[in-house]
């Protein structure tokens, strides 16, 4: 065996030894040893469940918006001023729940009372009201993407992951990408909400403006305000509360709910897995608060997929969302290479600095065009697309 071969670690050995943290922050706090195969000697052997979720022909992801907010300084200043990362997000007095009482003094009930009668159809008027009553309404953006799946019979399926934050920004993005018409025509089968955070969920009236009957999947753990907001936003369709664990949707597609606490008094994250014919597993995430380590490790433990290959990943990977690089994050960059991903489409809370680190490490990062207020070409920005099993 050559010295080069001795230095290589098999993907299976790495998976067996990789640490699985309950929180992204916990994973970030661990050293390289925690991600390494050397730790496998101290862990029990993993019994893979190998759940069969079926297979699909290909998927395409369109980035509707990855710009959740436009100024890190304003966002973090507001959070700090309102009491910190553990404070209930509905009290921040951010749009659309601003009630004019000032930073950290708001509530869901006081805020929604100002605009409920306008939802979901009169969003321009609702946003004009909330702009006058909220903290930094101009900073609100949002995360959302469209997923198009072709099944093995050639049928097309369309799904939304998340609905952003700002009514104004997200409506503009929906119209730019033709999402508004797809919703009107009932082409989009369901909306999956990754988690209850403001930048992924609070823009849900924009989806309901165009299709108030769309089936909506939310992860178990939503607080009373979040459940109430679904109804107050004008939703008239089915709401499916998805329990923790693996939840098949159609052949080749399953969601997985991670039961984890998240900042701003949010609980639970729902991410998506796709088994693409002849390629392998593609993982799609909103924020990946569970950490990229746990996201990939869960796939390995739970799911049977083509070629036993973790082929691709898309979304926010929550490594350096505020561009506050710490040397321990380099461990995560190093560990990502051990998974053997063939295609990486990152943006949003991955962080620009982190995306650049991926590129420098030689990882197969698909770059974007830096249009529509996305800041860098180093990741997939607003309006960009990525295909898995299909060219775009």
TrEMBL record:
Molecular-function GO term, any one: transferase activity
Keyword DNA damage applies: no
Swiss-Prot/TrEMBL keywords: Iron, Iron-sulfur, Membrane, Metal-binding, Transmembrane, Transmembrane helix
SUPFAM superfamilies with a match to the protein in the record: Metallo-hydrolase/oxidoreductase (SSF56281)
Membrane-traversing stretches: 14-35
Source organism, top-level taxon: Bacteria
PROSITE patterns from the UniProt entry: TAT
PANTHER family recorded: METALLO-BETA-LACTAMASE SUPERFAMILY PROTEIN, METALLO-BETA-LACTAMASE SUPERFAMILY PROTEIN (AFU_ORTHOLOGUE AFUA_3G07630)
Protein name, per record: MBL fold metallo-hydrolase
Native organism: Desulfatitalea alkaliphila
